[in-house]
Amino acid sequence: MPTTIATTSVVPFLGSEIVPDYDKAHVVILPIPYEATTTYRRGCENGPAALLEASHQLECYDEELDREICYDVGIYTNYPIADTRNGQRVSSLEMLQVTQKTIQQLIAENKFVIAIGGEHSITAGVVEAYRLSYPDEPFTVIQIDAHGDLRHEYEGSIYNHACVMRRIVDMGLPTLQIGIRAICKEEADLIKEKQLNVIRGREIATQPDWMERAFSSIKTRRVFLTIDLDGIDPTLIPGVGTPEPGGLNWYSLTGFLRRLCESYEVLGCDIMELAPVVDSVVSEFTAAKLTYKLIGYQALAKGW
User: Fold this and answer.
1) What's the average model confidence in pLDDT over 214-241?
2) pTM of this prediction?
3) How many H helices and E strands in the chain?
4) CA distances for 211 relative to 10, 50, 51, 214, 296, angstroms
């Protein structure tokens, strides 16, 4: 186990009865409860803990895949990093550095990492870890999101959650944005200038061939997946920082993800912006089930 990976006890994904040895685990869940630039509903720093707690209510058996994935794959839950809960102060640069360093070490240990947040600005550090770990072959960053997140800066910071995809475009990586339905003029101009690949929310709702167009736009063998949960229909996941009407429904989402894992080498992924709603568990439970579905699709693709 890398020296920067803490061994302090943490609520494990799926519960204490399913805790594999780190060395035998294919998948590492990495909680990053970081929140600093939220601009609407706060609370995403509590998202990772809520998702992990909700995962205890999942069925181990996946009826779609006809397998108890967790017993075959090995899912290790890492100790949280860049934790801003309880008033702890972590700067944007500190968060990006510890995220990058931790994930680089996990990649070196041949782990499939699912980072759970936390605000979307975290993804810049996650993607940078993969970019540095795979310098000889580019990969496409696939973003499921309601928002473009392409502003150069917002509220005085280039590391705001509204700027994360701009930082990734600046890395020179190809991108594909899916479910977008809220952008500013600056972002619209950048999409046109750089001819960025965007599948808008209204296209998903009205154009049956949207998935074919999405896959035909991916020109790399490898991909990284980032999911801002507000990309999903807010009737399924209302507990997000900035909800938007529309978005992917459950079966459009899972159908896309299964095909993505079957068709490309998915290097890793993250699930961001879960902000739990008081007196409701629907958002965190759905996010936990989404996490488990991703593990199952990756296990199927990899033969785990």
Assistant:
1) 97
2) 0.95
3) 10, 10
4) 38, 31, 28, 5, 21
